[in-house]
């Protein structure tokens, strides 16, 4: 079901109809740029409302969960650009919306948006690449220390009437362990920085970086399985794409020392969950700390959410009051800057479409 809510400030404005391209598209045209928020979790939009109003632009909200919902909502409001949380933006969607010139993702990842389709149709794709770097890195470290020390597991034991320091297994000293990082981008580097004094070694695998981009305190490992063989705890920090989907699999877990640990704050589908559960069941992995899942939200009763050796958080690694403001501001300003200059602040795919002026 599609819910469409317009900004009440602008509902009294008369709709102007293009006699040229807009008539052909059968879309309404407003006397100001119109941007559609496709879907959202947030409870209010005071920040975005003010940003767009101050820029003299129209901001429309929808809860569009499917391709058809996105097409309908964008057509109905005459959207010039899309502000996207989770909605699918595919080849079919962009082909049906020739007026849309830009897609801005509320986040760093953009796996629900087809970048090849954006390129084909000349649509700009933008994101918020550098918000919340510290939050995600410290959350990953918090999950790692939690499962290494067993704090959440001890809480469950105490509530079940168990009171013993070995109630959920033997605990090893973190300063004798090696942390392995897969993907040494902004967040991977920050994870290495905040962790370097807590672990004996920090090693990383990233085939796309030159040696000079590795910090002095991070040892380079050139083979993924070799990283798993050396590491006691592994933390991936990669985008989700065809290369990384299911990358952490049975072969990786088998290469680790028995009783090792895995945490994930990147994308849920980077890990093959069936292989992870098998490694946990066999004891090859001691435990896992996951902030992201292949299907969200988590479904009560499924094996992953009920597994006694898994600590879960609700895709919250990005979140702080400050990072949410930064994220939402940058995502919205991509659209505003594009409307004013023809180019967003944080482009991922360079487009060719420009804002179509109202008649």
Describe this structure in words.
By secondary structure, this protein is an alpha/beta fold. The chain has two domains: 4-131 and 320-349, Rossmann fold; 133-312, Rossmann fold (3-Layer(aba) Sandwich), CATH 3.40.50. It is 34% helix and 16% strand. It has 13 helices and 14 strands. The protein has helices at 21-25, 46-54, 67-77, 91-96, 115-121, 133-149, 151-159, 186-195, 224-230, 250-255, 273-282, 303-306, 321-341; strands at 4-6, 34-37, 58-62, 81-84, 102-105, 124-126, 178-182, 201-205, 219-220, 233-236, 260-264, 285-290, 310-312, 347-349. The chain has a seven-stranded mixed beta sheet, sandwiched between helices. A seven-stranded parallel beta sheet has the order 9-8-7-10-11-12-13, with helices on both faces. α5 (115-121) links the parallel β5 and β6 (124-126). The radius of gyration is 23 Å and the shape is elongated. The two termini are 33 Å apart. Residues 1-25 have low confidence and may be disordered.
What overall form do the CA principal axes indicate? Answer: elongated
Which strands sit side by side, in order, in the main sheet? 1-3-2-4-5-6-14
**Number of separate helices:** 13
Largest sheet: 7 strands, mixed
Count the beta strands.
Answer: 14
Broad CATH class of the largest domain: Alpha Beta
SSE sequence, one letter per element = EHEHEHEHEHEHHEHEEHEHEHEHEHE
Roughly what percent helix? 25-40%
Count of domains = 2
Which structural class matches the secondary elements? alpha/beta
What is this structure's SSE topology?
Layout: E1 4-6, H1 21-25, E2 34-37, H2 46-54, E3 58-62, H3 67-77, E4 81-84, H4 91-96, E5 102-105, H5 115-121, E6 124-126, H6 133-149, H7 151-159, E7 178-182, H8 186-195, E8 201-205, E9 219-220, H9 224-230, E10 233-236, H10 250-255, E11 260-264, H11 273-282, E12 285-290, H12 303-306, E13 310-312, H13 321-341, E14 347-349
Parallel strand pairs: 2-3, 2-4, 4-5, 5-6, 7-8, 7-10, 8-9, 10-11, 11-12, 12-13
Antiparallel strand pairs: 1-3, 6-14
Helix pairs in contact: 2-13, 6-8
């Amino acid at each position: 079901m599609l819910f469409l809510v317009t900004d009440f400030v602008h509902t009294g404005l008369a709709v102007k109809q293009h006699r040229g391209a807009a008539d052909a598209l059968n879309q309404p045209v407003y006397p100001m740029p119109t941007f559609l928020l496709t879907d959202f979790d947030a409870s209010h939009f005071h920040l975005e409302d003010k940003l767009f109003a101050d820029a003299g632009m129209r901001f429309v909200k929808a809860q569009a969960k499917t391709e058809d919902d996105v097409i309908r909502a964008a057509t109905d409001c005459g959207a010039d650009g899309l502000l996207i949380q989770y909605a699918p933006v595919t080849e079919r969607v962009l082909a049906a919306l020739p007026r849309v010139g830009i897609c801005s993702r509320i986040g760093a990842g953009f796996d629900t948006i087809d970048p090849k389709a954006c390129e084909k149709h000349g649509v700009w794709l933008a994101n918020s690449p550098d918000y919340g770097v510290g939050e995600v890195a410290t959350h990953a470290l918090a999950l790692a220390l939690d499962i290494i020390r067993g704090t959440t597991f001890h809480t469950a034991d105490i509530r079940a009437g168990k009171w013993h320091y070995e109630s959920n297994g033997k605990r090893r000293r973190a300063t004798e362990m090696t942390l392995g990082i897969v993907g040494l981008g902004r967040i991977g580097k920050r994870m290495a920085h905040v962790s370097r004094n807590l672990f004996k070694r920090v090693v990383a695998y990233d085939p796309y970086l030159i040696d000079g981009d590795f910090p002095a305190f991070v040892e380079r490992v050139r083979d993924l399985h070799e990283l798993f063989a050396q590491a006691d705890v592994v933390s991936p920090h990669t985008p989700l794409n065809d290369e990384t989907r299911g990358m952490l699999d049975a072969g990786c877990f088998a290469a680790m020392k028995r009783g090792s640990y895995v945490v994930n704050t990147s994308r849920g589908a980077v890990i093959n969950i069936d292989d992870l559960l098998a490694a946990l069941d066999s004891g090859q992995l001691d435990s896992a700390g996951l902030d992201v899942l292949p299907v969200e939200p988590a479904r009560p009763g499924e094996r992953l959410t009920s597994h006694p050796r898994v600590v879960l958080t609700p895709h919250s690694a990005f979140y702080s009051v400050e990072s949410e403001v930064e994220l939402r501001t940058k995502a919205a300003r991509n659209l505003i800057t594009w409307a004013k200059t023809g180019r967003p602040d944080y482009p991922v795919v360079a487009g060719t479409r420009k804002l179509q002026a109202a008649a």
